[in-house]
Design goal:
Carbamoyl Phosphate Synthetase, Chain A, domain 4; Dna Ligase, domain 1; 5 domains; seven-stranded antiparallel beta sheet; six-stranded mixed beta sheet
Length: 740
């Protein structure tokens, strides 16, 4: 404020001022990331209400190049417009009514030889954009029919075709295309973001690659550490990983190291170009990462802080000879490959849920006859697109197997024993040469069956037996040693009857790293950086006795995903999180629950719960009733309350269509909280009364709880803290009381 434009320095050129009119020699295409398909029954159509959960930004010298780069950045399995992995059955309908698949439908429309004018009439997309996509499709057809030569390869690259797409068009692998491309000396050049189109020399370290050019704007750096980012925010990968990326970059630079970051997300701090010595705003594909690593002089590549996107590149980069920081990619593969990891656990005499990789329906039936129902099914990602699912009965199983997947030797289905009424806990930490140097253990409030990203996380644990904690840490030590981990890790366990079973081990930073670091006061990424540069760590870190408690609560966006069933389960559906730090578990939980953006504006609770939960909730309901809370319930729940001395207002089910009806009660917002506990959370029926109650709660913005353990914690908190003022302490005050 208070400066004129001619007094402000242009941060790109470092010579001119902001008074100069911008002139760009690059094109940017920003595409939203939609994850509507991950929510059961959700409507995929897009319109005036925002539904995206993230975005990417492709940079190139032409629109086709930038567009196809942006598509690759989405991390949805497509290496360009050509190979969208799900079938689109009705192109006309998809083009006319916009969904997240529309741009792929438009490409396929032109690839199949359909008319430009009809595409315009259906979509109302401007002819210029349609013509550009038509040209991309025509190049794809030419290559499919005539094959690749040097000229067509260069042309395809200028139009944004990836090595993988060209391999699909010519029946080759992406590795073969890469070898051919390098043999022809067809390589991208590195360009700087330049706001004056070369009129003045750019000084920025803000970079992208393009095939429209002959010369690099910069020369290679000597001795850099490359950090692969996490790509677009999506359900399952959000700002937690970017916190890790930025922290690691800052820690390495504080040790005098040069850092290069590769990422594609314009929303992140890691893509602020002053957070690293060089920023490549580019795709996180093996092809592009290799191009950048070939250009730079690299000491090591970090794949540990970019979530699963970066982690998935580890083994391929290792096989191509690039140096990976920390844990060997061969050991990462042992943890990622279910069969190898299971075999290792057996050798270590560590318990795990029983599982098989089935190649036929009969194998699944035989497995279920041994372990019983329920079971957890993970179908082939590429083939079916169906989510993980817990199956509780044979009718659902048979329907799921027939509707969702084809099972074969090429596409086996992982099916595992699902353990009911079990707690879930996690251990996060950093190790050095197979020895844990810092770890933390946290528990979920919800029982197993809710994805860890959707669970309410408690750290340090409050309701775990000491024996369980010690046993978990013993198991973690064995696994870390066996995998010779150097760097971050996350392990997930199921606990029941004081027995522990290992679910999985991720040899990378988890979503919980920022939360654990902030609650404990011990920055895990700081420790990780020391491991990566080879500094021996002799300190011991205690995170269990940190003197405070942190509760992390998920944030859901069901109100934006019309038609979705708002019940958390094994497939992650939350789009964010909040956390609170305090001294009392229930008070901290309640603050965290309120921090999600929910509020109870009247002391009236609608109860709609399955029989198995009624008696369990009764003592808490009676306590609240004595405090003046009122209850509304349908038949069975109403009778149970009245028979136990709790006053209740009776309402009919929605399907009864008789007044007083539960629908009118919700529509008129006569209740302040709705607790709906279905018999089977793993199945959804849009015609059921339970589903309609849940959707009404979301659509009329009434707080909704659909998990039994969460409802227990909330009712207990309401009895103690509703309407009471909180003693607010700042983060620094909480820290100073416990770390002097």
């Amino acid at each position: 404020l208070g400066f004129s434009l001619n007094q402000l320095t242009n941060q790109v050129t470092k010579k001119t001022t902001a008074f100069f009119e911008p002139a760009l020699d690059y094109v940017v295409v920003k595409i939203p990331r939609w994850d509507t398909h991950k929510l059961r029954l959700a409507d995929r159509r897009i319109g005036t209400e925002m539904k995206s959960v993230g975005e990417v930004m492709g940079i190139g010298r032409t629109f086709p190049e930038a567009l196809q780069k942006a598509v690759q950045m989405l991390n949805i399995g497509a290496s360009g417009l050509h190979d969208y992995i799900w079938p689109i059955h009705d192109l006309r309908h998809e083009i006319e009514f916009a969904t997240d698949r529309r741009i792929f439908a438009v490409y396929k429309w032109f690839y199949e030889g359909c008319e430009l004018d009809e595409a315009h009439q259906l979509s109302r997309i401007d002819y210029w954009f349609l013509t550009q996509i038509q040209q991309i499709a025509q190049i794809g057809l030419d290559i499919k029919h005539n094959g690749l030569n040097e000229a067509s390869l260069i042309k395809a690259k200028k139009f944004g075709f990836s090595d993988k797409t060209l391999g699909l068009l010519t029946n080759q692998t992406d590795v073969q295309i890469r070898e051919y491309r390098l043999a022809q000396n067809v390589k991208p050049v590195v360009k700087q973001i330049d706001t004056l189109a070369g009129e003045f020399t750019a000084e920025t370290n803000y970079l992208y690659t393009t095939y429209h050019g002959k010369y690099n704007d910069i020369s290679a750096s000597d001795g850099v550490y490359v950090i692969i980012g996490s790509g677009p925010y999506s359900i399952g990968s959000s700002v937690e990983f970017d916190w890790c990326t930025v922290n690691l970059a800052r820690q390495l630079r504080s040790h005098g190291k040069k850092v290069v970051i590769i990422n594609s997300n314009p929303e992140t701090v890691s893509t602020d170009y002053d957070e690293s010595d060089r920023l490549y705003f580019d795709t996180l594909t093996l092809e592009r990462v290799c191009d950048i690593l070939d250009f730079e002089k690299v000491i090591g590549v970090c794949v540990s802080v970019g979530g699963q996107i970066a982690n998935n590149l580890a083994l391929s980069l290792h096989k191509l000879g690039y140096p990976i920081l920390g844990t060997s990619p061969l050991d990462i593969d042992k943890a990622e490959d279910r069969a190898k990891f299971s075999s290792m656990l057996n050798e270590l005499d560590i318990d795990q849920p029983r599982w098989i990789s089935a190649t036929s329906s009969q194998e699944i039936q035989d497995f279920i006859s041994e372990v019983g129902l329920p079971v957890l099914i993970r179908p082939s990602y590429v083939l079916s697109g169906a989510a993980m699912k817990v199956v509780s009965d044979y009718t659902t199983l048979n329907q799921y197997l027939s509707d969702a997947m084809l099972i074969s030797n090429e596409h086996p289905v992982v099916i595992s024993q699902f353990i009911e009424n079990a707690k879930e806990l996690e251990i996060d930490g950093v190790a050095q040469n197979g020895r844990i140097v810092i770890d933390s253990i946290s528990e979920h409030i919800e029982n197993a069956g809710v994805h860890s990203g959707d669970a309410t996380l408690v750290f340090p644990p409050e309701r775990l037996y000491l024996k369980t904690v010690n046993k978990g840490r013993d198991i973690a030590r064995k696994i870390v040693k066996a995998l010779n981990i150097s760097g971050p890790f996350n392990m997930q366990f199921i606990a029941k009857n004081n027995e522990l079973k290992v679910i999985e081990c991720n040899v990378r930073a988890s979503r919980s790293f920022p939360f654990i670091s902030k609650v404990s006061g011990k920055n895990m990424v700081q420790v990780m950086a020391k491991v990566f540069i080879g500094e021996e760590i002799k300190d011991t870190y205690n995170t269990l006795d940190c003197g405070v408690i942190g509760i992390k609560s998920p944030v859901f966006s069901y109100n934006r995903f019309k038609g979705s069933d708002p019940v958390a389960q094994v497939e992650m559906s939350s789009t964010g999180e909040v956390a609170c730090i305090g001294r009392d578990m229930l008070q901290t939980f309640y603050m965290s629950w309120l921090g999600v953006g929910q509020s109870i504006n009247k002391k009236v609770i609608l109860l709609s719960v399955d029989d198995k939960y009624k008696q369990k909730l009764l003592p808490l309901v009676q306590t609240l009733s004595n405090q003046g809370w009122q209850f509304v319930a349908t038949g069975g729940t109403h009778d149970m309350l009245v028979n136990n001395g709790v006053q209740s207002k009776f309402v009919f089910k929605i399907s009864d269509q008789i007044e007083p009806n539960i629908q009118r009660t919700i529509n008129k917002r006569e209740v302040g909280l709705i607790i709906n506990l279905p018999k089977d959370v793993f199945s959804s029926d849009a015609n059921s009364d339970g589903f309609k109650i849940r959707r009404l709660a979301i659509d009329f913005h009434i707080p909704l709880v659909t998990n039994f353990q969460l409802s227990e914690a909330l009712l207990e908190s309401l009895a103690l803290f509703y309407g009471q003022p909180f003693n607010v302490e700042s983060y620094s005050e909480l820290r100073s009381h416990n770390y002097n």
